[in-house]
Write a structure and sequence with these properties.
This protein is an alpha+beta fold. The chain is built from 15 helices and 20 strands. The strands form five sheets. Strands 1, 4, 5, 6, 7 and 8 form a six-stranded antiparallel beta sheet that branches. Helix 12 crosses helix 14. It is rod-shaped. The relative contact order is 0.07. The structure holds adenosine-5'-diphosphate. Adenosine-5'-diphosphate binds next to helix 14 and helix 15.
Length: 598
């Protein structure tokens, strides 16, 4: 049988209920695992949203920090006022006190730009040319037409920014617009993307402006400013540690910062989550394109749903195995029980047949014994009678020896006649008599009468106690008591007249009828055997008998649905106990009064 066929056959053994349980558990497993993955997806989404917001917040926070630095510069200029114009040395002190490198990572420097209308260029130059003795060409550059000029006047640290000194913000659109916006709004502004003159890398950058006024309410005198290379700014803002998200920033479509490339540590070419967020940034709109990184993917690597699915499927497989095994065991047990039942039935049938044939042969034997003993009686009696006649007629003519032979013949034929009568009695028990209610005193009395001569010759004492009425066959009961009393007379002790007591007592639903004597008793080991037919314990010649008497008694008692056994008693003799069912309430009648015979 192929393995596949075996598996298919075993699965076929399962019941609808089994399949229902297996199907139900499968559904539950699928539901649990999909629920778990949906939950995890939700959690991841929330985590991504949180990480995105945190990263954008970081950039915004840092920009605010720089703004504060710019306003500090504005504060210094305000504090000096119109009377005491700002000098380069003031700015060097101020910038030094800011500790740019440590407190403003990513900043390129911090400087001051003055607003110089075309009409006041000379004024401006005469005011500040003495501030840069090391420069030959201090002025406003490049030459830019127009009414407004915004030259960078101070910038610290000077060494890294010297190229910027004198640079006019009006020379280039983004710078110019930023300056105008700061002037117009009076608030901090940033420029659109530019390339700083001091950035050799030519990477995107921007300027951060905070406007100030020195003379009068409505005037605009210039801006404190800070240049930024975005790359450096972000390196200072965002930690280099494994981040869950990467960003790129664009300003009106121009990418100013980008981490979405292979060079970025943790770049995920196929991010699990991505989002774009527009952030208003000091007059500009920065679009943050946020994507999850490899680090985020690791975070999401929890495989709870897969574990649920695998464990669940394993449990289901075990269920199927268990169900098929138990079903198979049950089938095998049933098949075995069927086989055993069949075997038992066969055995029973055989037993019944044997019983029937045994009963049949028993009946045949009984019939044969009955017919033989019945037919033998007449010839034996004839032999016995003629022997007696002969001994009477020839009496005196015979020698002593011949008379002895004749006497032996008479005795033997009489013994034979008794034996045949016993066999006849035995085979007749329970057959030729209808049962009726019998007062046990009646059969006992008949038996005593039958044995009167023996009783007298043995000088025996027979005491009959109270006896009950039972449902039975009177003649059989006579045979029973005649044998019991007869044996008690026969197996007496020498030199002691036999004392025989018949008594009865009730024990639940049965009568216990006892026949006790003070005879020679029966040894323990023979107490069962004495009831077998033709069993005799004593040597032949000592006591007459054929070994049929107690077998007869047993047969009578069993024909009355009772039992018989023998025990010893304190007289040294035997006590035969007969148990007879009470039969009916009528059978439970009070025992009739007893008599004593002697
Ligand atoms: P029997 O014809 O020999 O008396 P029974 O069947 O009546 O045959 O008794 C079987 C044997 O049981 C007897 O041979 C005898 O040894 C013993 N037996 C029977 N009744 C008594 C008794 N009352 N006391 C002692 N022995 C007995």
């Amino acid at each position: 049988m192929s393995a596949e066929f075996t598996v298919r056959r075993r699965l076929g053994d399962l019941s609808v209920l089994h399949w229902f349980v297996i199907g139900g558990s499968l559904l539950l497993i699928l539901f649990a695992s999909s629920f778990a993955s949906a939950e995890i997806e939700k959690e991841l989404e929330a985590q991504f949203a949180f990480d995105s917001a945190q990263t954008i917040d970081l950039v915004q926070d840092r920009m605010e920090q720089y703004e504060v630095g710019l306003w500090a510069g504005v504060g210094l200029i305000d504090a000096l006022g119109a009377e005491r114009p700002l000098r380069r040395a003031d700015w060097v002190d101020f910038a030094g006190s800011l500790d740019l490198v440590n407190r403003y990572p990513g900043i390129n420097g911090i400087g001051v730009i003055y607003y110089v209308p075309e009409t006041r260029i000379d004024d401006y130059l005469s005011r500040f040319s003495d501030q840069y003795p090391e420069l030959d060409d201090f002025g406003i550059k490049p030459d830019t037409p127009g009414p407004d000029h915004f030259p960078i006047t101070f910038i610290e640290p000077f060494e890294s920014n010297d190229e910027a000194v004198g640079l006019d913000m009006a020379f280039e659109t983004n710078r110019y617009r930023g300056a105008l916006a700061a002037r117009a709004t009076g608030s901090a502004q940033i420029t659109g993307p530019i390339v700083l003159v001091q950035d050799d890398g030519q990477t995107p950058g921007f300027l951060f402006f905070a406007p100030f006024v020195v003379e009068g309410e409505d005037r605009f005198d210039g801006m404190v400013y800070a240049p930024f290379v975005v790359q450096r700014l972000m390196a200072g803002v965002l930690d280099a540690e494994r981040r869950n998200v990467a960003i790129s920033i664009s300003d009106v479509g121009n990418v100013i910062y980008d981490e979405h490339h292979g060079g970025f540590d943790g770049h995920d070419p196929d991010p699990m989550f991505a989002d774009t967020v527009d952030v208003e940034m000091y007059g500009r709109v920065w679009t943050f394109d946020v994507r999850s990184t490899i680090a985020f993917r690791d975070l999401a690597a929890g495989n709870e749903p897969a574990v649920i699915l695998i464990v669940g499927l394993l449990v289901d497989a075990m269920l199927i195995f268990l169900f098929t095994t138990t079903t198979r065991s049950k089938k095998q047990a049933l098949a075995y029980a069927d086989q055993v039942t069949g075997d038992l039935r066969d055995t029973l049938d055989k037993l019944e047949t044997t019983n029937a044939s045994l009963a049949r042969s028993n009946r045949d034997l009984e019939r044969f014994a009955y017919a033989a003993s019945h037919d033998l009686q007449t010839p034996i009696r004839t032999v016995s009678n003629y022997a007696t006649l002969l001994s009477e007629e020839l009496g005196s003519k015979l020698t002593e020896a011949e008379s002895g032979h004749l006497r032996s013949l008479v005795r033997a034929s009489q013994r034979m006649s008794e034996m045949v009568r016993s066999v006849l009695d035995y085979s007749r028990i329970g057959h030729d008599e209808a049962p009726r209610w019998v007062d046990l005193r009646e059969p006992v009395q008949i038996a005593i009468d039958d044995l009167a001569a023996d009783i007298e010759s043995a000088a025996a004492f027979v005491h009959v106690g109270d006896l009950p009425t039972v449902y039975g066959r009177p003649d059989s009961l006579v045979v029973l008591f005649r044998n019991l009393i007869g044996n008690a007379l026969k197996y007496k002790r020498k030199g002691r007249p036999p004392v025989i007591r018949l008594s009865a007592e009730r024990d639940g639903q049965v009568w216990l009828i006892r026949c006790a004597d003070n005879g020679i008793g029966i040894e323990d080991e023979y107490r069962d055997r004495v009831f077998e037919i033709f069993t005799r314990l004593n040597p032949k010649g000592k006591y007459d008998g054929a070994g049929i008497g107690l077998a007869l008694c047993k047969r009578v008692v069993e024909a009355h649905d009772g039992t018989i056994d023998v025990t010893d008693n304190d007289q040294g003799g035997s006590t035969f106990t007969i148990r007879l069912p009470q039969g009916s309430p009528e059978g439970a009648r009070a025992p009739s009064a007893g008599v004593t015979v002697s």
